[in-house]
Structure formats: structure tokens, C-alpha cells
């Protein structure tokens, strides 16, 4: 008989590693507790502390799920420098070859709710938190090298367009295709979502991208601009639509289970970390706006330079405490890494902090998994909902002060505004490249099939609009989708047959 997988066997393994019950049960306040019969009419339930304590706690167990990226798998490990980049970046975590920094990772589909399926056709979040000696550095990325739009005002609209119809409470193809065709720059990323990479085969075989072009600086104060790439050492693997649909019925937690089992059985997933590097002159002379998150930076012009690798070698011991409560924020930056100068990055500096105040409360950075474990916090924040930890003890609580409260660090100078060439939003050159040069003939056919599956459910005026933009990307893509839609119209009724 095969050994049961670690995830299926977790509770049995717990019993095996403990010599007996872990202790006497107590109330949350620590008092030993008796369990008495609650069904008898002859006793007051209100004196039953087990009942009172557990019931009142149970009804407070839920916190808001993340607005997006609600479902996830996550783990812990380390980042290790393999190549020197101190000539461009002075961040301590990159200071010498061989240096290791502890980290956390969380991988997540964007749209599905917390109880949804891991194998939906969607982009995936690729969020990393590095616990550096200068505080936490977060790269909150995707498994696609580009994002949907470059105007952050579209974030609420796009989230809504992908979520549920307000009347039917159903995911609604008309809403999605309305958005995609009103903001056609989004089709670049959606070619990937509808292509083979739209359903990764678990998280271990998924690449990651920081997407934004980050500004970094060296000891001399020179600026450079970099994009992060994370390449899975186990290779990229994806699922086909039919396979994914089947898995989704059998095991909606497929990717979460796979990550847990791999780590628990010592097959630690790892990623090679590479960066594209641009000088200020490269930025000024670039043919494209290198800060545009809907674009990739062509690798023939800006090649990948190796930087390091990261390894995930530790599962959470408690999922809620360590993964649900993880709070990533693109604004978590460290000395030497100034973040992206673009507007999407700027919007994100606000959104995540705000979301986490709502989701986890004002002191979410005091939750152990969010604490910068390699440095001490000296913030002028006090009080609020738990956890407050030591609440900065008796240190002066106002700034400035003359009584030895914490003093500011020398402020890092950001690059002045740079005059650069900015493209029209709907420039389809890169989408065309992706379709023609990066996708194989078979993948192009599967892309068309997957688009038809989704677009076939939308009304005709949206289908016509979509065909127009697919044709602008490439006439072959446009005509195959147009023909496919016509076959569907005559031979197949999506409303009734699906
Ligand atoms: C205007 C642009 C954007 C806004 C306003 C925004 C906002 C948000 C918000 C509010 C959350 C939930 C956070 C939480 O509750 O903890 C979230 C999660 C996330 N976002 Fe964004 N986002 C934007 C763009 C992006 C981009 C460009 C990327 C990828 C490069 C991205 C990747 C992620 C990931 C990976 C998560 C899940 C983090 C986790 O694992 O906890 N987002 N975003």
C-alpha cells in the first residue's frame, strides 16, 4: 500500500509525534475546564464555561476574506544571493554572495473566493515577503510578466467586472468582455490567461514576475531600474482546460495540496531569481515606456541577469495564523530599493495597507508573521485593537521630541521626474509578438478555443468589439475567433447548452 500523502495524514502524524494529549483543556483565559452534559434540563447552560467560551468564540471566527486573491497556498523558506549586484543596489539582502534572507511566499488565483477552486482560468498572485535586516521587503507579483492596465483608476471597475453580477450573483461573461474591449490594452495579459499559462499545474511549476520596473540605488547613489523574474527550477507546467475542469470537480484544492505535500515530503520547490537591468539612459532612450505595466521589457534588448534563488522548505504550522494573516504591501521597501515610479505602484502603496487595516485591524504589523524578524520596530504608532505587543513600552510617543525617542533615518532621494516616451495605451505590438513568436501553433489553437468558450457567452455587440481588437492584434487571430463565433451561433446555443 502507498504511504498516505502528508496533507491527508497530517492529523495522524500529529498523534504519532505526541506521547498523549498535549495537556488539560482550558478556557481561553487558561482555567482548567470540565466538560459536562449540556442536554440536561437540570443544569444552567450559562455556567458551562466550555459551552460559553467555545460558542461565543466560534461566531467570531470569520474575518473578511481578501477582496482579490482570497484563496491561496503559502509557505516559508529563504532567499540566497548567487550573483553580486552591489554595483547597482545597496539593499542589505543583496550585499554578498551566499547571503540568505528568510522569506514567506503566498500564491493565489485572483478572482475565486476563499472556498473556490485552484484550477480556474485566471492569473495567479506571486507574493513574496523577505524579512531583511532593514525591515520587510515585499514583491507582490503575478505569474504573468505584465498587468491588465496602467491607469490605477480602473482597479475597482476591473475587480467588479470579473466578480459576480449584482442581480444574478453569477460570474458574467458580458461584464468581463465589456471591460476587456473597452480597455483593449488588457488583451495582452489576457492572451496569456486564455493561453496555456492561464491554468498553472500547481504552484511549484509557475513562474513569477514583479512586473513593475523598480528603481534601485547603489552606495554612490546612482540609480538603476530593474524588473524581477522568478523561474521555477522544476520547469513550467500547465493544465489543459478539460483536465483542469475534471480536477476542479475532484479536488478544488489541488494546487494548495500539491505545495503542502511537496514541502512536507522534502521536495522543496525553488525558483531562480533573475533581473533585467536598465540605466537612466536606457530608460530615456527606450522605444517603449519601460514603466508601463501592460508591457514586457524585451529580453533581447534588456537581458536577464542572474541574482539568486529562493527555496520554500517549511509549511505553515497553522494556516490561518501564518498565511491568511500574511499582509503583503508593495510599499514595504528597504534602503536601496525605492519601488516602481509608475501610477499603478503608487495606487498600490495605499490599497494594500488600507485593505489590511480592514481585514486584520490597525496593528496587523504586530502579527508575528508580519513582524520584521531581523530588525527592531521603532514606530510612533500606539494603541488600537490587539495585538499591540509591548506597544513601544515607555518610549516617547510623539515626534519630534527632546527625550531620546526614535530619530529619522537620512531620507533616500528618489529619481527626479524623467522625461520619457509614453505609448498609446492600446498599442498591440507586444500582444502580436506573443501570439506569433511565443505561442506554438497548437497553443494558438487552444487560445482560440479558450477565448471562444468565454466570449461565446457574451452578447453579439461585445463579440464584434472583441473580434475587432483581436484582428488588430493579428488578422489570423481575429478571423479564427470570428469564424468560431459564427459556428457557435449557428450550431450551439450557449444560453441553453451550457
Ligand atoms: C491599481 C492597482 C492595484 C490595486 C489597487 C490592488 C489592490 C489589491 C488589494 C486591495 C489586495 C488585497 C490585499 C489584502 O487584503 O491583503 C490585493 C492583493 C493582491 N494583489 Fe493587487 N492591486 C493592484 C495591482 C496589482 C498588480 C499590478 C499586481 C501584480 C504585480 C497585484 C498583485 C496582487 C497580489 C499577488 C495580491 C495577493 C497578496 C497576498 O497574497 O496576500 N496587484 N491587491
Describe this structure in words.
One of its GO terms (molecular function) is catalase activity. Belongs to the catalase family. The chain has 498 residues and is an alpha+beta fold. Helix content is 31%, strand content 15%. It has 15 helices and ten strands. The longest helix has 18 residues, at 343-360. The radius of gyration is 25 Å and the shape is globular. The protein starts with 9 loop residues before the first helix and ends with a helix. Mean pLDDT is 94; it is low at 491-498. Bound molecules: protoporphyrin IX containing FE. Protoporphyrin IX containing FE (HEM) binds at residues 66-69, 72, 106, 108, 125, 127, 140-142, 147, 152, 155, 211, 293, 326-328, 344, 347-348, 351-352, 355-356, 359.
Summarize it:
With 498 residues, the chain is an alpha+beta fold. Helix content is 31%, strand content 15%.
